[in-house]
DNA sequence: CTGGGGTCCT
DNA sequence: AGGACCC
């Protein structure tokens, strides 16, 4: 009933809005502006790694996947490391970079869903984008709060794009201001409950919320006044910087001579339409104006689960089978925890073709026999060989092994996931295979969070109770690694929290906050740790998790709903029974920390009320005055871990050609610009021609702009009654 | 030598 | 089955 607030019947609003778009207060029909929040976790993988191992907080940290540093913390960024930089260049720029491997996404995935889940406890309208971003449609939340808010005492939290927060007429933007307050509360919850810092953007569409959320980068939030829409759009470097306009579309636009967002705005529609079709043409042109009517579409459980690995070379059937088995057994475990039945198996591979591998993947898929699927979900061990056998058949449909082959990637994917048990039945079916210890802990499903009432739409409150019960039991299955299994050593050295926190200047503390409690993520790849290395082993122990008083059974604790866990942890702390981290726990002073952290900003100067641009980049000066030298030995240790692996040849590339490496717009994404730039011009031209030829016609950019209208109507009914709630993923019913 | 995931559309 | 998009 409540799922759709904003009717998006107005498909053809473009003409109406183009001229009026900058106008905030067209409140014609009864349609009011939405209040959309966009949350973006700071350097996500790096943050998770720093939570797992707090010793990393004070070091420049990069997360490595194969030969790439996929992300890095802000210390590393100050030293010249960027996202998606090659390992080689990262180490050239920052020899002291500490590297952790991040190819196993388990921890990132788990924490990601906890984030979404937490946001959903405020308001069900949450849409995920990747692992580290979420949209929230807070319109209803705002509307409800508006009722009992004294509008004259209202003020914005955080920045306001290109405005002085103190000079803005809050009355005029009361709903946006409330949005900023709610965003701040949610960010505070992400911090206090999960230990994660984030950025947020507050605007009236997904597009603008996302764009504005990045304007003040680590751990800050920014609201966009409607009248600043054009300025923000105009500030973008090019059309492909508009979310929803990707690389391919950007290239096509270039070919049309459309090189800027402004050019896209004023491009004759018919020209765009001849290239992209009318619908797409209108859509991307609207995007250029900052117009994005696409709704926040609540995420359900994932539509597919996949696992993949890339490598230099696999060229025998035996190797393929070994890799496929490895991938499938991991994937099966995930599938089993999910609980749904996979009905389709897809095998994808990438071949190494002589000159290039243009990211061409080929795939074959087939149905999974019911009995096999059922074994997957029940964890029956002979499901794996059955799946492997199926996958190998798919493989042989893809590859004629007689010819010889050279693969560089294999992917296995379960799709067409069927929720078993239509609705209520599954509760009992679930309970039957649930750990008995948790059974008595069932509670009513109170999902109040942080004192915020869980949303107005009053939507599915009756299923919530059920959901709460299910949560009690399901948590352990979903996040088995987060369930506090058996042994806990209290983080001995982290009471030390030592040089790190206390000796740092305040500005640094603001950027390297220490959560009130440490979320627990079990180290999923401990096999990588050299057992003979005592130092690293001790580092490992530090990340075990929060202390539980000895009388608390970790398994029981782990089976509790998260918010109950939180409350218990808080009570442990206030009860003074927690020896560790007493410095950070500072009482359970969430509140003071909240005020301190959110009403102003990390770099606030002297507690003044400056919330604005004055504050913007002062953080870049901060880390340089720190003395990290004492940690040098350990850094080397950790660095060696990163390098030791078979990837050495990555380092022995051509000389340091000065060409920039990231996101080169003019050459194929898999071509090293350094190498490319050294080719003779005619060869460059040939490569480019060949490359461009490969892509036929442009497809419609999707996501942000495309989902309105019929969007999700045709989806499989697998989700049962609560088709817009992620909760059922955690507490499937 | 640019990961390891995801989404939806055609 | 592949292609576009997102991170």
UniProtKB/TrEMBL annotation:
Write out the biased-composition intervals (Low complexity): 432-441, 485-496
| Superkingdom of the organism of origin | Eukaryota
Is Transferase among the key words of this record?
A: yes
Where is composition skewed (Basic and acidic residues) in this entry? 520-535, 602-614, 623-650
**Gene Ontology biological process terms in this record:** DNA repair; translesion synthesis
What keywords tag this UniProt record? DNA synthesis, Transferase
Task: Note the Pfam families from the entry.
Answer: IMS, IMS_C, IMS_HHH_1, UBM
**Among its keywords, does the record have Ribonucleoprotein?**
no
Residue ranges, annotated region (Disordered): 428-535, 574-650, 698-733
Bias type Polar residues, positions: 455-465
Question: One GO molecular-function annotation for this sequence?
Answer: damaged DNA binding
UniProt domain UmuC: residue ranges:
36-246
- What InterPro entries does the record point to? DNA/RNA_pol_sf (IPR043502), DNA_pol_Y-fam_lit_finger_sf (IPR036775), DNA_pol_Y-fam_little_finger (IPR017961), HUWE1/Rev1_UBM (IPR025527), IMS_HHH_1 (IPR053848), Rev_trsase/Diguanyl_cyclase (IPR043128), UmuC (IPR001126)
Family to which this protein belongs? Belongs to the DNA polymerase type-Y family.
Q: PANTHER family this protein is in? A: DNA POLYMERASE IOTA
Name of the protein this chain belongs to: UmuC domain-containing protein
Tell me which species this is from. Electrophorus electricus
**Which gene is transcribed and translated to give this protein?**
POLI
């Amino acid at each position: 009933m409540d799922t759709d607030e904003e009717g998006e019947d107005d498909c053809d609003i473009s003409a109406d809005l183009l001229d009026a778009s900058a106008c905030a207060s067209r409140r014609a029909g009864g349609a009011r502006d939405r209040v959309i929040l966009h949350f973006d976790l700071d350097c996500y993988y790096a943050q998770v790694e720093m939570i797992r191992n707090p010793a990393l907080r004070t070091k420049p940290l990069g997360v490595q996947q194969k030969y790439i540093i996929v992300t890095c913390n802000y210390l590393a960024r100050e030293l010249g490391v960027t996202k998606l930089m090659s390992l080689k260049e990262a180490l050239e720029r920052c020899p002291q970079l500490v590297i952790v491997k991040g190819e196993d996404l388990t921890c990132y995935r788990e924490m990601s869903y906890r984030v979404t889940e937490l946001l959903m406890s405020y308001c069900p309208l949450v849409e995920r984008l990747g692992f580290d971003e979420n949209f929230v449609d807070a319109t209803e939340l705002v509307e409800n709060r508006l009722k009992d808010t004294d509008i004259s005492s209202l003020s914005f939290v955080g920045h306001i794009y290109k405005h002085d927060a103190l000079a803005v007429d809050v009355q005029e933007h009361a709903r946006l201001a409330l949005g900023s307050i709610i965003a701040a509360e949610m960010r505070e919850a992400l911090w206090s409950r999960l230990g994660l810092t984030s950025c947020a953007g507050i605007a009236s569409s997904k597009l603008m919320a996302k764009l504005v959320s990045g304007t003040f980068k680590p751990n800050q939030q920014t609201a966009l006044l409607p009248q600043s829409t054009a300025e923000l759009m105009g500030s973008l470097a090019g059309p492909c910087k508009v979310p929803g306009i990707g690389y391919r579309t950007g290239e096509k636009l270039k070919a049309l001579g459309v090189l800027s967002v402004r050019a896209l705005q004023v491009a004759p529609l018919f020209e765009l339409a001849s290239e992209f079709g009318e619908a797409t043409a209108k859509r991307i042109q609207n995007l250029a104006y900052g117009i994005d009517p696409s709704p926040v579409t609540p995420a359900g459980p994932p539509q597919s689960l996949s696992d993949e690995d890339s490598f230099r070379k696999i060229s025998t059937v035996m190797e393929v089978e070994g890799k496929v088995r490895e991938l499938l057994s991991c994937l099966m475990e995930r599938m089993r925890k999910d609980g749904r039945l996979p009905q389709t198996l897809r095998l994808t591979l990438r071949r190494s073709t002589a000159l290039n591998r243009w990211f061409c993947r080929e795939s074959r898929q087939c149905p999974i026999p019911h009995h096999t699927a059922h074994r997957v979900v029940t964890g029956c061990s002979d499901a794996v060989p059955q799946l492997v056998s199926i996958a190998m058949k798919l493989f042989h449909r893809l590859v004629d092994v007689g010819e010889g082959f050279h693969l560089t990637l294999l992917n296995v994917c379960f799709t067409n996931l069927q929720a078993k048990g239509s609705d209520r039945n599954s509760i009992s079916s679930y309970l039957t295979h649930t750990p008995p210890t948790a059974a008595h802990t069932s509670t009513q499903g109170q999902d109040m969070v942080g004192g915020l009432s869980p949303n107005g739409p009053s939507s599915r409150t009756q299923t919530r109770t059920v959901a709460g019960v299910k949560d009690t039991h399901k948590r352990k299955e979903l996040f088995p690694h987060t369930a506090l299994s058996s042994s806990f050593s209290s983080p001995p050295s982290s009471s030390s929290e030592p040089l790190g926190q206390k000796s740092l200047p305040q500005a640094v503390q603001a950027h390297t906050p220490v959560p009130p409690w440490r979320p627990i993520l079990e180290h999923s790849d401990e096999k990588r740790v050299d057992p003979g290395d005592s130092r690293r082993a001790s580092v490992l122990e530090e990340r075990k998790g929060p202390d539980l008083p000895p009388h608390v059974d970790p398994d029981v604790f782990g089976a509790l709903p998260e918010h109950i866990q939180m409350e218990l942890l808080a009570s442990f702390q206030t009860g003074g029974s927690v020896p560790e981290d007493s410095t950070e726990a500072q009482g359970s002073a969430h509140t003071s920390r909240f005020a301190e952290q959110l009403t102003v900003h990390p770099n606030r100067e002297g507690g003044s009320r400056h919330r604005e641009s004055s504050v913007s980049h002062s953080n870049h000066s901060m880390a340089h005055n720190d003395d990290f030298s004492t940690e040098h030995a350990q850094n080397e240790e950790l660095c060696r871990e990163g390098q030791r692996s078979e990837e050495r040849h990555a380092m022995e590339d051509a000389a340091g050609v000065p060409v920039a490496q990231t996101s080169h717009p003019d050459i194929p994404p898999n071509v090293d610009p350094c190498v490319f730039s050294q080719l003779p011009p005619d060869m460059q031209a040939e490569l480019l021609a060949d490359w461009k030829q490969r892509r036929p016609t442009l497809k419609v950019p999707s996501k942000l702009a495309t989902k309105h209208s019929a969007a999700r109507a045709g989806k499989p009914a697998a989700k049962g009654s609560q088709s817009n709630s992620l909760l059922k993923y955690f507490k499937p019913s």
